[in-house]
## 1
Amino acid sequence: MTQQEHGCIHPNCHELLGRLSDYVDGELDQALCIEIEKHMAECERCHLVIDTLRKTVELYRSMPTPPLPDDVRGRLLLRLNLEDFVVKSDEINTEDKKAPAGME
Amino acid sequence: MNETMEQTHPEPSLQALQSGDRLEFSRLVEAYSAPIYRLALKILGNQQDAEDVLQETFIKAYRHLGEFEGRSKISTWLYRIASNEALMLLRRRHPEAISVDEDVQTTDGEQEPVEIADWCCLPEEELLTTESRDYLDHAIDTLSPNLKVVFLLRDIEGLSVREAAEALHISEAAVKTRLLRARLQLREELSHYYAERLGEVRRI
């Protein structure tokens, strides 16, 4: 992609590209932020790239993080000899259904 | 946003851990076993290998707690052990997977974006269907190991650039370079995918 191909006015889209991660994370200093925003206003292609890059990061950060499978957890605790120190997962699951202590 | 470890788990007491407090160690295990397993699973792509890395990480952490000087957070130290273990195992399993040339930084900027489609306007329910989520997950697997581990630590597990640098024993500049490459590559993958969805939405 050359400047002519996508009509960039900025002398170096390429250089700005190297700073996009910081920009998306809000960690770029103000002067460069202004420079990027000014360029985005003039260059639709870069604007789109930045918007979709930001959305990409947002989507990944909003992905649910799966819990540790019960069997993997069980074997880990066993290997570390920690079974006596933690609540077993089946106890967590049935905790609400159990009669209060002393009622049995 | 997924919650970072800092939000869900307060940093365990190093003093208690180093004095051999088993209860405190069990809290550490409970707090970080899920993220460490996820990290290992995404690096290795194999449940048994991921479980081995998970167990080795906590065994090594327990053995070496006395040597930990507390210059980084305990969680960062755990990620460091886990990343090392996972990448070492990956090297053993797939010696060809990790290129020695990958760290060479180019001075002429990054790979240029190719796919240009304005898919940000797609409705959230279209962006996050079950199929889309599977695609997002699959797209991470297209990253090379060195890019992938940086992306996982920073954007999936929520470490700061500095923490990721400490965990991987590389400079913050190297983290930023790899992170940008990873994100740009994923943006390309997602753009291909969502551009098609965009076409379908517009045809309806």
Note: Chain B touches chain A through 49 residues (CB under 8 Å).
## 2
Amino acid sequence: MSRERRWFPVCRGEEAVPRHIVHTALLGQELAVWRADDGTVNAWENRCPHRGVRLSVGTNLGDRLKCRYHGWTYASGSGQCLERPAHPGEAPPRIVKARRFGCVESDGYVWVRLAGEGAGDGPAPGFGRGTAPPGLTLRSIHVWAPAAAVADALARHAGEAPDGSPAEAVDPYTVRSAHAEAGEILYAMQPVADDETIIHAALAEAPPASERIAVLRRENGRVCALRDAIEASGSP
Amino acid sequence: MIRLYDYVLSGNCYKIRLLLSLLGLEWETRWIDFHPKREHKSEWFLGLNPLGQVPVLEDGDFRLRDAQAILVYLAAKHDERGRWYPAGDPRTLGEIAQWLAFADGITATASAARLHDGIFFELDADRARAGANAPFRVLDEHLWFQEQEGREWLCAPGHPTIADLACFPYVALSEEGGVSRLPYPAIRRWTDRVKRIPGFIPMSGVLVA
């Protein structure tokens, strides 16, 4: 299975806020991820097709993204260039488009894959729990380490299940653990680059509303401690 | 008349220009040739500030050095609505003081790397870059949890304070020192919010939202 054809989470859906451009990367490919005012989420190569400037420093105009450099705009959805301010009254060539990647929202995250069409390789975008979305998405944690090392560390340390069973590595990028306090926790790796990973994590069951912030802080602390251990040793 | 001893590429000077602009104040600028002339280390400037640092502010016969101190003074004296430095609110004042000190940690790391890359300061830039990750992680985590509690700014009130202005410039300029903000999505959302404060002005290297 090609990693390029697999769906990976790149951010929590609610962090693709209106009129903002998320700057992230997948397998070394920089991405500009942005939500149009109609709710559509776009994941584009972070590069203006005109002069190569990062689109993530541009402006999200609600239905189009405007490049910082020469003001060329690209439509949500199609990526089609709509305007070139230096050529007023002249329609941009149809061939000029932002480079788009497959992008869907599922289970509270934006999932992207770099190549392929249709169902593609690997699991469907999401945590693989069928129709039951996770109860609470946690803060995503950036780690300066390869995805394989992070997933391995999670599988070995994130378990602490009541029966002592270790966490389960569902596949090279997904870990599921049954935690004494938090219950089932799902971890999905975003391989940002060779030595850079973002851990996206969610609790299967939502805690009571009154405990939400405390649970978010507790789980954030747990993953940050693991991050620090991974970074300190290279392989905890 | 307020006079600001200012260097155009300094984030610490910029944060003073930003507050002056947000407060709608008028001021007079005395430009300091920080690079390449090192005018901030000249005898005449050391007479104004023995630390040899910009910015320095004069308001009539009152003179003050240190960017964070100047933010405190200007907001306390000239913000009639008392929002940028809420003098009657001990908790917020405590939080602000915490982030003003924190801003110096950003200056010591992200800004130092930028001085190395931009104007050839002799220092360990890789160490400075790595050092910036520590405060940036603290800042990103804080801002993420602020958002979870429905807050958009560094401190608790529902509006920005000088804490946001103190931390903003060298965060927004970090990529000039080779410190990517890709790992810090909550910081990126916050810098967008700062750029949308009515009256916001940019500087070279800080793009408007």
Note: The longest helix of chain A spans residues 212-233.
## 3
Amino acid sequence: MTKLDDLLAYEVVEGLTEGHFTAEEYVISILKRIEEVEPKVHSFITLDTEGALSSAKIIDKKIREKEDIGQLAGVTVGIKDNISTQGIRTTCASKILENYVPTYDAAVIRNLKENGAILLGKLNLDEFGMGSTTEYSRYHPTHNPWNLDYVPGGSSGGSGAAVAAGECTVALGSDTGGSIRCPSSFCSVVGLKPTYGRVSRSGLISYANSLEQIGPICRSVKDLVMILNIISGKDAMDNTSMPSSPITVPNKSNKLNVAVIKELITGSDQEVAKSVFSATEKFQEIGFSCEEVSIKNLHYALPSYYTLASAEASSNLARYDNIRYGFDYPIGEYKWDTYFSNVRENFGEEVKRRILIGSYVLSSGYYGKYYLKARRLRSLLRLELLTLFKKYDLLIGPTMPILPFKFGEKIDDPIKMYLVDVNTVIANLAGIPAISLPIGFSNGLPIGLQIMAAPFEEQKLIDASYELEKVIHIQRRPNSI
Amino acid sequence: MSMVMIGLEIHAQITALNSKLFCSCRGNYRDLRPNSNICEICCGLPGSLPIINQKAIEYSTMTSIALGCKVPDKIMFYRKNYFYPDLPKNFQITQYNVYGISSIGIEGKYELDDAKQIRISRIQLEEDPGRIVYSEGGMNVRNTALIDYNRAGVALIEIVTEPDFTGPKEVRQFLNKLSLTLEHLGVCDTLLEGSVRCDVNVSMNGGNKVEIKNINSFKEVEKAINYEITRQSSVYNRNLNIELETRHWDDKKKITFKARSKEEEHDYRYFPEPDIPVIVLGSDFVSNLKQRMPELPNQRFERFILKYKLSEHTSNILINDKKLADFFESTLKLHFSPTEIANILVTDFKSLIEDDTESTDYLKNLKVKPEHIAELAKLIEGNKISRITAKDILVKIFESGKLPSEVVNSSNSYKIADEKTIMDAVQSVFDTEKSAVEDAKKNREAINFLLGKVMKFTNGRADPKIAMRLINSKLSAPEKQ
Amino acid sequence: MISKEDLEHLAQISRINLTENELEKFPKQLDKTIEYIDILEELASDDSVNLDLQELTFEELRMDEISMSDDKQLNKNITEDGFLRGPKMK
């Protein structure tokens, strides 16, 4: 039998229901695993051992008393530390929120709890989700479980690494420009950015509201569907959320039309491109049609993304003035605006850069030049993609144009860092769903395939991913730890 | 005389709402313990999202219709970015008119009594900030500000006029009319403390525009304008330039003073609020609302004249005090005698309540109810009491809250219709007022004096018609020897 | 080009103090970023493109009802009277 800590989510629920082990036993196995690998990986910012154990005991009691335990009973979930958890501090990996303990649960957390999931703690990220490596975390960087000298991707790097390292059954991340898919690709796990509006953002600490979604990061497509179905749906606390139908897996499989985005292949490293081609061949082998397409507005996608994301961020992060929550700072010493500037000096460099750029592009005189143009590109890109989706079910390409890289490689050059997001921002701008699926390794470093579908066509994404997962056998647990 | 141009920017809270604009906290924040009417949304906790109040859109649309504005099919919200400790998110969610998107109302016209039209540039729906109380501070407080967020997020309607006013009188007329309209619509109780605020811009002789902020009641507006006109005239007469500037109104000293320029240097960096989708009102929205919208003061005025056959003068008095007009119509429901009841209300009744009309619910607190007035009118019409007695009875009802019939019974105030009793009174008056009788014989005008004496003699209870007849016949009767 | 004055202005409207190190290296870094997003200028300004991604109808909006949570939303710097202490205003 597989080791307890290596079980997939649906296996955990099955095992519990059938009485093979107790929730407490399972949680203890996970906590042991954390104890073992965390000193190397550093996925967590806050670990809630007690909370997890007591939740497990409650589930075991319910099982003994034959009560309903929920669809995710016993599944341990790591939460990206920008998703609000009542009573558990939520830092966004920022010094500004070092002591912030939310008074309410995010909608997704409520959903998870109601379904018997066990919260393990809060996972590392780049400060406020701004970054692609976790190097911008104000606490510590997370290491890639496949090779500890390499970055795990970001910003949900803690989530990607924790799932890959077996420190939790599944994790939640958030994706503003690729923050779920990038670490999923770099850590060889499955990660989905849902259609904009499918999952409530209530309680997700905003970086760029119009672009981001919460999504699951898992070790299998089936696990991912379990989580997605639980967190999806219209929520009264988010005016941008929308109703959706649940996903089924396995589904009556249709033969889908797939198109490879040419620009994403030509812009990638050779090993990455090669791996994507072999995945394409697999698709053909299982009877999918594959063609090549070009996206004409792609060139403007990344500048448009950075304009919009920075603009929204500069406004969203204005609230961190340390008055209502935050760290200790002598309140009587300075006049309010000096006080504000002083306490906000505590943001990290990347956050500051984006706030300044955001203030710049929104300033009078520049609004038309940057912000409006970016909005317009966004609409054009969405239209172009929707037109393509009339002909093709799915658009594919590499999730990341490059392999995972070493710490320090890009941190001093913001533009270099921004460029790694070029493939993933498309889905955020267009509001469409996109998944990253592990498809292979090069020199022991993971490669992910990105599949995109039309709005609310997650079922197609899942069908294709599930079929591909069946034929590509990927090593699940890293050897290095 | 110099040319004056005045424009207004009015903020009226939608006091009619149960809840705030973007959350379910109480709309009525008054008299609550500081920071007890707050939630994660209105105090801007990380991850909370604004959830717009349907009714707020309805009320602001009604206001727009009443002020002759166009209401667009689609509306949007914008963020106005500026830092201030009373602003929990350090941005305000408001509306903005740019790039073809408009606020809830635009291009309105509002007519003053002399048919002069004031153009309304726009009407916006937005959120109120919290309140700052400045403490002078003891040892522990040391010059800190005290903040209360109970008001934060209360719905405000902002009404902006073109600079169409030529003097303070027009402004006063406009504000009175506006208050009345808001009251009729049920949107805003303008008598509540802080429910209406006004910024004014004044320019003279084509000179620079001076903005005056912080005028916290409509009553102060006229004073501020007068002060500003005097100030600007004296600057002008000294051949100096009137500076383009923002000034504040000092409530206590009754002067305007220059704001520190740096504080007013704002670049609001407006951009569309990403957490609130475009709201589609639809083409029928306005026409449907017009159907079920409360009657406006003008419409009511016309109706009073047409349906109740009241004079313009009487109608005007009633309309200008909505609560009195409502009282009038409630009374009519009990006893339909418009002229008599209107007469009681606009004369005796009104003179008795004159001092109290400043408080918001003055009619509710009265002991006199429509039942009283209806019965009083019946007694007058049934010739049971005289109009003069009616006034005394009204005073007694005001004090005791007893019904008119009770008062009349207990004080023996019924009208005297018995000719014998009245004749006795006439005889005594004739006995004591000999010279007046002689006058009356020569000059019929002097009869009224005698009638007055008879009425006084009977404590106003004599039927004046009978008394008059008896006086007349006694005057013309041959004198007894 | 972002001058030191521009940077200071941006920092002022964003209420952020910059460290010596940031003042040193930000102008160049921000320049590069702005240069990068400058290619947006190539896009034509065509107002006919609908920029809105999402719409809500009036009927979908929240009803005007009060629902108060008992949670203490603020727990820091609260005076005995319930006021939140903030920095001095003058």
Note: DSSP finds 16 helices and eleven strands in chain A.
## 4
Amino acid sequence: MVNDKELFQKGLKDGIAIGLSYIPAAMAISIAATRQNFPFGIWELMSALLYSTSALAAILNLLSNGATAFLIYILTFSIMNFRHVLFSLSLSQKLDSKIGVFGRILFAPFNTDEIYSIVMQQPGKVKSSYLLGISIIPYLGQVVGVTAGFLFTQSLPESLKSAMGITLYAVFLALIVPPMRKSVQVLIAVVLAGIISWALECIPAVKASLPAGAPMIICTLLTCTLGAIFMPVNSEDEELEEEMKKSNM
Amino acid sequence: MDSKFLLILSLVLFGISCLMRMIPLIFCKGKIKSKFLNSFLYYIPFAVMTSIVIPEVFNSTSSVVSAVSGVVLAVVLGLLGQNMLVIALSSTALVFIIENFILHLFN
């Protein structure tokens, strides 16, 4: 039986790679954010609270489009984060029954895509000491990256800042393209979403009838519905379960 | 955008994010079995990100030529498996070079 200290150390160790991988992403999003001229404190707080590169990027995009309706931000953010409901659902079976409501509340904000997938790969039930260990370094990585990115942009000349209009979109492309290479279904979904989004925003009559931020929500719902009907995928959980059955874990 | 709006926005979104992650973690014991729902959720991030990029990216810089070049470079580097920071910086640098040096040659 492994004790709590060892589990905590194992968690810390598993968190190192995740934390390192967060630094460049956080720097990139922070560089993109300087276009908005955020005060340092506000941006630091926003990124510390939201703790998700893709959600932050979606919010930045809405801000740069000048969306002022709270509902659009809430809808976009909820759609963006909906997968965490699913993660939490499957994670709830994985946690040690000794972890009470308070512990679960405390861990919830740290349950990112990457941490979730590492925790799910652990054999057996997962204890609180391991969760504590794995939560720390990735979060520090995010904070360090955001701060470094912000400070970096302060020293840049104005002429370079105007070229940074593309930075946010390059961040998104960096998130979209690698999975496209691995999965034809993702490739088709991306092309489909591109066509729908183009149609919603470039056909004048359609664009004029929609409020800021609405094309994104419509495009997402339409693409995902078509994708789920015509290209259903097995969830990662099922694959993981099958692997676990094979290895008798 | 004023600081007060951003502050309230951050707090509200943080609250939503916590609720979405906590409620299933505390109360739910079941798994989502529906293949439709699982597939739908799987495509969400890609659909959202694509709809953010297209068509706005082509108007994100001072010329369509530099924007298209930036996109092409980002896609190629993504296909080559480069990390996000490399992609973001290279793409920005290319746009800068094209706008400040190359396009001036034609004006």
Note: Chain A touches chain B through 102 residues (CB under 8 Å).
